[in-house]
Amino acid sequence: MPLRFAPAHPRPRGARWSRLRATCVIALCMTALCQAPTRAATAAPQPRDTDLLQQIEQLVQSPGGPPGVIAVLRRDGRARVVRAGVADLTTGRPPGIRDHMRIASTAKAFSGAVALSLVDRHALRLDETLGRRLPGLPAAWHRVTLRQLLNHTSGLPDYTESAEFRSILAADPHHRFDSRRLLDFVADRPLEFPPGSRYHYSNSDNIAVALMAEAATGTPYEQLLRTLVYRPLGLRSTSLPQGYRMPEPHLHGYDTTTSPPQDVSEVLGASGSWASGGIISTPADMTRFIRGYAGGALYGGDVVREQRRWIAGASEPAGPGENMAGLALFRYATRCGVVLGHTGNFPGYTQLIAATPDGRRSLTFSVTSQINASVNPELLSRLRAVQENFVCALLGRPGH
To answer: Any idea of the CA torsion for 150, 228, 344, 274, to the nearest 10 degrees?
Structure first.
């Protein structure tokens, strides 16, 4: 029998916000969607904390660097927060662990958590096809399986590369898309390659994952998130909105290619990324999430083993060390050891969440600008090096 839950209530739409100039919007849209307490805030930093702080301060001070960085390292039951720069250039307020932020493509890990929880409950199967659950999608896509969607070997064309999709965003960045019809933008296109034949990161994959979960349960994806992910992991400040407004307080995200940097926190609505990248959360909640998700707390060992069948493939942007892809999860093999997680980027935000395979140690690393290979490859290389040093600190190894 399919799972049944009470229907989700629609979220109210906020007032319309003034539009950024069209050239800035187009550039942001194309790069965004087409591509992841020290023990007490008043305590004196330990030597290792001081070293980490210097690294992120240098990142903030780099040409084109982010206005703010906040990292949460949790191990042995204790959390250390290392932060530099500001959450808001206007007020100078420092970043905080309860500040809301766009989590970008780390939202794909949430859709993976929903789907794999349903697999664990026998409401879905990893070899189940789009044709069986979503027969209304193009016949050429029907043989794609849930497993192939989750590890980006489906061949589905990326809807964010559609000229029509980009044109709509350029004309109205706050356009309210029907999130459940996003795949319509590429419904006239064949698969990019035979399913399972190679890896190719696609935003369409996780839209299809969410639609399969809804078809299997008769329940809105937003409610599945609350029931299967937020509630079990104690996430109280995480949501999947449709509009563009950010809850307060929030980390302001900036376009650092302009002078002065321009606040782009609310430049795009979430309806156009939905299950692929629309979630809003906080560093505190993301720490709870990745510990449970990477540690296998949401489903049984058989599903965990399937999730960790690694293939060649990197997250977007690439995470620290050598990247391998699993089911909505990546393996980052650093010089100090292995962590599992996900990355993401969106206008104003770049994210890394990672944890040891047992979930006992975790790192949440958030910066308030978009950093990827297209926007600034040199800065991405520096960011990955800093992230790897934070992983070494997390694992208690000097790594030098």
So the answer is: 90
pLDDT per residue as tens digits for the range 15-55: 333 444 333 343 444 344 444 333 333 333 444 568 999 99
Best CA proximity match to 327, nearest among 350, 344, 305: 305
Token digits of residue 93: 């307020």
Token pair belonging to 91: 């007020």
Q: Quickly count helices (H) and strands (E) in the chain.
A: 13, 12
Cis before residue 317, ω within 30 degrees of 0? yes
Cα separation of 135 and 251, whole Å? 41
Does the CA dihedral 52-55-59-60 come out positive or negative? positive
- Token pair 């780099």 is found at 62
pLDDT tens readout for residues 177-198: 999 999 999 999 999 999 999 9
CA 392 to chain centre: 22
Name residue 22's beta-bridge partners: none
For residue 221, give the amino acid letter: Y
> Exposed e or buried b for every residue in 157-175, given b needs 16+ CB within 10 A?
bbbbbbeebbebbbeebbe
pTM: 0.89
The rounded Cα 171 to chain-centroid distance in angstroms is: 26
The token duo for 233 is 């992991």
What interhelical angle do 22-33 and 163-171 show, nearest 10? 140
Q: 324: how many CB neighbours lie within 10 A of its CB?
A: 21
The token pair at 17 is: 């916000």
Indicate the Cα dihedral angle 320, 326, 328, 330, nearest 10°. Answer: -10
SS3 15: coil
For the residues of 29-81, what is the DSSP string, one character each?
Answer: HHHHH-----SSTTSPPPHHHHHHHHHHHHHHHSTT--SEEEEEEEETTEEEE
By CB atoms closer than 10 A (0-12, 13-18, 19+), residue 357 is: middle
